[in-house]
Amino acid sequence: MTLRIFVPSDAAALSMGANAVATAVQAEIESRGMDAVLVRNGSRGLLWLEPLLEIETPDGRIGYGPVAAADVTTILAAGAAGAHPRKLGRVDAIPYLANQQRLTFERCGITDPLSLDEYSVHGGLKGLRRALDMTPADIVKEVIDSGLRGRGGAGFPTGIKWRTVLQTEAPQKYIVCNADEGDSGTFSDRMLMEGDPFALIEGMAIAGIATGASKGYVYIRSEYPHAFAQFNRAIAVAREKNLLGRGILGSSRDFDLEARLGAGAYICGEETSLLESLEGKRGQIRFKPPLPAISGLFAKPTVVNNAISLATVPVILAKGGGFYRDFGMGRSRGTMPLQLAGNIKRGGLVERAFGLTLREIIEGFGGGTWSGRPVRAVQVGGPLGAYWPTSLFDVPLDYEAFAAKGGMIGHGGIVVFDDTVDLAKQARFAFHFCAIESCGKCTPCRIGARRGAETMDKIMRGERVVQNIELVHDLCETMRDGSLCALGGLTPMPVVSAMEHFPEDFDRGAAHRAAAE
Amino acid sequence: MSSSTTDTLVRMANDISNFFRIQPEDQAVAGTADHIRRYWEPRMRAKMAEHLTHGGSGLNAIALKACERACKSVSSAPIYRGGT
Amino acid sequence: MSLHTGNGFEVIDRGTPERKSEKQVTLEIDGQSVTVPAGTSIMHAASLAGIQVPKLCATDSLEPFGSCRLCLVEIAGRNGTPASCTTPAESGMRVSTQTDRLARLRRGVMELYISDHPLDCLTCSANGDCELQDMAGAVGLRDVRYGYDGENHLDAVKDESNPYFTFDPARCIVCSRCVRACEEVQGTFALTIDGRGFASVVSAGMNEDFLDSECVSCGACVQACPTASLIEKTIVQHGQPQRSVITTCAYCGVGCSFEAELQGNSVVRMTPYKDGKANHGHSCVKGRFAWGYATHKERITKPMLRSSPKEAWREVTWDEALDHVASEFKRIQAKYGRGAIGGITSSRCTNEETYLVQKMIRAAFHNNNVDTCARVCHSPTGYGLKTTLGTSAGTQDFDSVNEADLIMVIGANPTDAHPVFASRMKRRIREGAKLIVIDPRQIDLVRTPHVAAMHHLQLLPGSNVAVANALAHVVVTEGLVNTKFISERCDPTEFEAWAQFVSREENSPEHVEKISGVPAPELRAAARLYAKGPNSAIYYGLGVTEHSQGSTMVIAMANLAMATGNFGRNGVGVNPLRGQNNVQGSCDMGSFPHEFSGYRHVSEDATRALFESAWGVPLDPEPGLRIPNMFDAAVDGTFKGLYVQGEDIVQSDPNTQHVAAGLEAMECIVVHDLFLNETAAYAHVFLPGASFLEKDGTFTNAERRLGRVRKAIPPMAGMTELDVICKLSTLFGYPMHYNHASEVMDEIARVTPTFAGVSFAKLDELGSVQWPCNEKAPEGTPVMHIGSFVRGKGRFVLTEYVPTDERTGPRFPLLLTTGRILSQYNVGAQTRRTPNIVWHDEDVLEIHPHDAENRGIREGDRVALVSRSGETSMRAHITERVQPGVVYTTFHHPESGANVVTTDYTDWATGCPEYKVTAVEVRLTNHESSWQERLDHLHRIQRIETVAAE
Amino acid sequence: MLKKHSPHFHDDWDPESARGIIEQYKGLEGPLLPILNALQERFGHLGDPAVRLVAEILNLTRAEVHGVVSFYHDYRREPAGRHVIKVCRAEACQSMGCEDLVGRLERALGIHLSETTHDRRVTLEEVYCLGNCALSPSAMVDGELLGRASEEKILAAVGEQA
């Protein structure tokens, strides 16, 4: 039997030299005349181990990592049974992976991302085939029953959105996938599109059938050239194998989709701005109502869902809404692919049911900081998420529990900072980032972000600290309640949380006074 | 009386008749004549009348008949009969 | 943003546009109950309840945008503070517009605005007329805690390139009202926001100067700007106006309503009036900005006499001038007969003035030798529509286009000649209406940003009727006729004859292709589209009328519209786009030699009896001379005296040399005008006119709408045309006296059934009114022919294609057609005397690259333009807008002499000149034509002597 | 090869091939971004002639096209250097010292962020998140992602391909 050797083609793996490893593997296979084949899989999400090389054995896949090209000869010489300093043993037994509950990322890193047969063998297409035998209303009901909420950040129930689109009469409707994953600390959309693109395609096809939309767009940010290329290859395969196009999978339903590349605009992750961008316009925010579900892309009813939400749909349809709903806690149902990032020892993707605590994630999975210094702060939910001290680490991962503490889960990014972090600087950066990425439409965001950064500069210089902190609080109220969209509206979250939880970093007057004495 | 003005009138009459010529001849003649009576100042009709006394050269068949009908008695009472 | 001081017409900005809905919703705002149509914004609803929510980016001429965040409100039971401009009112809502939280938020937003704005209110041009200033006051901003040392735009460079307004980015609050106005209102899309975030700045084109950009200077952006960022240079120079007067623009037939804004007796700004029903607050570069001619130094303000056109002008008193005219005209009548004099009414003057001129001629001169410049433009419209439908006017109001599904533009160039209406048409097209253009030239509408014609039937000049017949052929032979409409509304026998006629092979698209050059499949596709509608509207211009078959074409269009049932409701009809401000009115007022006001023939005994009794004199039952026939009669020696009001016949009428010969044969020519125009070179008496700003009256636009002209400043020459005509008529032995123009309108109403309900009082009450306005339609008639045609049964008339006698041949192988451009107006007498000259300082000859190549002509070369009538010269512009074999020019500059080459072929029915088809040759030249040299000479004489007289 | 490794290299403007690119995409719904992306890919930047041509073919105004071009961080109105280094400055990379990395690169190249070296060899830019946040700090050199980026690693990437 032909031996299968896996080297990921995931962008994170590539960033650590996976291509050189793959080249070495290929060369080794040829020079040794091995009955072996190199498979470029997606990433398992154990990113600190990338490039992670795997050799398939009857007892499971044996992993090595992180692997350099120079290690390849010795690894293959020793064979899966032999010893090697980089050897990790059975990959699925590594606790980081073994302790996960992978539903959305079930196949990611396991299969060849561009093999539809493998996708099918590993449970793919079951959801779509089932959906093709259901009425649109029943599909929508299944998704509502699953309790799936938008994984992009807003947490709006996916099925409810679908129902609105289904009930809005129009000759043309659209499914738009938001893969403009711009939050620092997040990479799950990218990993999925690179590692299991058919899951997203299948999810979008199901959404199309459920709502009466025959056309889909996937909006991918330009910072993800690799994901864009990979996803386009997957679309080509899907069209060839009739997963997309006319009469998909031999049914009477049509669905096709197109991947579109952004051009550098964080704001286009906001759904209305994304729609403007897809239409070929400046990515400025549209006011709501009307909701995109009623008047979205080209003023047609449009489902706009995050890539992870859509990629989760196949498993819901395959195994039933109830199956998915059984995971999680409270109103946060199912699993959440969390991304451990920043100053962390074991960065990567962790998919778990809602309900575990930050401490379990950061200390348990993450293993503390990369630098080895104490954790001081963590920002959950991207640049608009709150900065939390370790005293909040026991809050369970749950939309409502996070909101109750002034934070948000967002897209599941968790960025860890060690004790060298200056929270005043981070608060200033929140304004600065908002200023850089503001679309410029509404006044609180357009001018407020700039003024916020300037006022933070004054605070950091020790100028009229008390008054300026008060001014920042007032500005935060103006931006939070006055902004047109979440960029301006949520920028106060990191600022206010930093001031609340780390006041010592803001009292520069005291610091200056101390320095002067 | 300049001949160029007469030429103009002949051309005008012919142009008018050319619009009506698609209709049966009696209607065409009547239409042309009516138009001339309604829109031509008496001097123009008088001048055309004089031209007719010299044979009305240049006028096509319909225009000739129409001018004979419309221009011969310039000083006669108003000819408007209503309708167009 | 304009003042509404003392004109009695206050206009409230409700922030968002009015919505129409059958469903009404009732909500409570600050404790007040208000009921509005579903879809109405909370802001608009509040305004209706008398509550003005603070706002900056919202204005009711634009769709809501939601950017300034001043208009936030609280709604009971809902989270957050939604913007009232973008949130629709819903039944049962309880809205608070004033709470402590909202006050804090609004102050917070204003504090941000002001942190990036100059603090020079007292010396700012917009001081007192600035919404930002108003809002800072309204929200109680007292302090900007950010200081003024942060990043800002205060050093941004001002753009002063446009002759009429400046753009100062330092004062810009990036509300995008200008950008949106350019898109939504004007439809030009010349503005955008450059960059994003704090760096966002309004940009014309690719960050170009306004003048170099795609901007057409319509003023919509300036109108929309809430600060001094976009502001008129006149306001910068003179300051804010003290009072304003609502009046009607004196340029094209759209008839825009304007506020003339004044300081003392000086106009400082003209702003489009928001409640104007023709323009709904929009304007174009001419009406909005090019009004400086009204006080141009070349205005003549004293009457002048001379014994012959070879002599110098001599300034005289009004009495001497009018005595002279009366005695000269009496002398001429005594010597040459009653019919030896006549007059021309002006399509630029008011209805009242026009009415009085024709009354003077009929009652005091005792003949019917009155004509108007409409003769040379839209007389075929009157004839053709009267013949088929029973009324000499367009069938719709402008608003009707909002419901058209298919728009067919024939021989008109609305974006240049009727820009304000073109903007509405373009908006409708952006909303999804389909467009067909029938024109020899690629006008802008064929393809311009966001607008593209489905079909451009690029026919050869002169083949209109053939093309219309081909469209009818398709409609009839492919069974696209609306038989129900025809059986109910039209004469069936005449329809049958017509159907048979158009079905003939000679009218088939395949045959007509050979005549017109339009591919048969295009003709067929266009006809199907038109017939399919469901609402198909025809808009046409002088490209239809100014042909030897102008009237035939008007009839053909009416036939086509009847056959497809496109009359009698919104969105359909046959609609002339009238050239001058009062072409419709001058025709309505009885300016034609054969008819009294209301289009009643002079030979109708009952009508004549009515006028004889009203005027107290016997009236001539015979039609009088038309303009071209006046020149013929002059050459013949039977026509010797002519009074010309507000028309430059030498420049605007065809075959200039024939016109000149006629004028030279006369003994007394009286020109009554603002400027020494080309005709004045042949005149014996010059009477100074009054501009539209100097008098009261009405204009009637292309949609039959009577709009008030109101006196804003006293007449510069001391007398208005109305005064002059009364005095002249009295001197002539027929006393006339009116205390006010309103008394003239009262008389018009008494003698004209279609105007029976019109009075100045009604116009003041309703703003404007569309005739017919009488007992049956006391508030006027926006759409005509509802239920039945005015003449009873719609009449199909056969329209055989009879080619013009003007033919190309070896000597004159090209066809010349003429038109106009946006920045200039008609013969340019007004616009040439304004900075509009920066956009068009000379007329050029457009020629196809192929024809240019054959003649060795390069871009910008001086070329001779030669026809059977004459020769002139101008510079060549090589462009594919014209097809091979066709050349095109404008006639805005007298030096160009476009009408030196046009012929004296005319429309068979009305004598309207065939401006649009002249066989010509074009060749390189290095000198002016002999005609142009003579013109230079004439100009020199005029100028020198005039200066000497001052 | 030069083109593959130097996507930002400025090729001379060629209206015919630009027209071909625009025509290829103009049938898409909302074709503007795909067209601008393709033109920038081909020519390295979007100069005035490109803006005019796109406007003409799509029947838009140049104001509209310029407005869009100026909105997105990626679009360049001027050509960049032959190599483009984008260093991530978002939070995850901040936590791993990206500000220090930016400072080192600025000193090593003698330019500030958003600038190009005199020899037009290298343009240094900031970017906010490359989606490689578990392997911070990250950078992208000519479209290739680098994890655990260091001054040495980045300059080597430029040097190798120079």
Provide structural commentary.
By secondary structure, chain A is α/β, with parallel strands linked by helices. Chain A has helices at residues 11-15, 18-32, 72-78, 95-98, 116-121, 126-132, 136-146, 158-167, 188-195, 197-211, 225-240, 271-278, 307-319, 321-325, 358-365, 399-404, 423-437, 443-446, 448-460, 465-482, 486-490, 492-501, 508-516, and strands at residues 3-6, 36-39, 53-57, 60-64, 87-90, 174-179, 215-220, 256-261, 302-306, 328-329, 332-333, 335-342, 348-353, 375-380, 387-389, 413-418. A five-stranded mixed beta sheet of chain A has the order 2-1-3-4-5, covered by helices on one side. In chain A, strand 7, helix 11 and strand 8 form a beta-alpha-beta unit. The longest helix of chain A has 18 residues, at 465-482. Chain B has one domain. Chain B is globular. Residues 76-84 of chain B have low confidence and may be disordered. By secondary structure, chain C is α/β, with parallel strands linked by helices. Among the domains of chain C are: 24-98, Ubiquitin-like (UB roll); 315-377 and 582-699 and 714-757, Rossmann fold (3-Layer(aba) Sandwich); 379-576, 3-Layer(aba) Sandwich (Dimethylsulfoxide Reductase, domain 2), CATH 3.40.228.10; 814-943, Barwin-like endoglucanases (Beta Barrel), CATH 2.40.40.20. A seven-stranded mixed beta sheet of chain C has the order 13-12-27-26-25-14-15, with helices on one face. In chain C, a hairpin with a 2-residue loop joins strand 1 (24-29) and strand 2 (32-37). The longest helix of chain C is centred in the last third of the chain and has 20 residues, at 930-949. In chain D, helix 2 (15-25) packs antiparallel against helix 3 (32-43), helix 2 (15-25) packs across helix 4 and helix 4 (48-58) crosses helix 5 (62-71). In chain D, strand 4 (139-141) and strand 5 form a beta hairpin. Chain D has two domains: 2-71, no CATH class; 83-161, 3-Layer(aba) Sandwich (Glutaredoxin). Chain D is 46% helix and 12% strand. The longest helix of chain D has 12 residues, at 32-43. With 162 residues, chain D is α+β, with helices and mostly antiparallel strands. Chains in contact: A-C, A-D, B-C, C-D. At the A-D interface, helix 1, helix 11, strand 8, strand 12 and strand 16 of A face helix 3, helix 5, helix 6 and strand 5 of D.
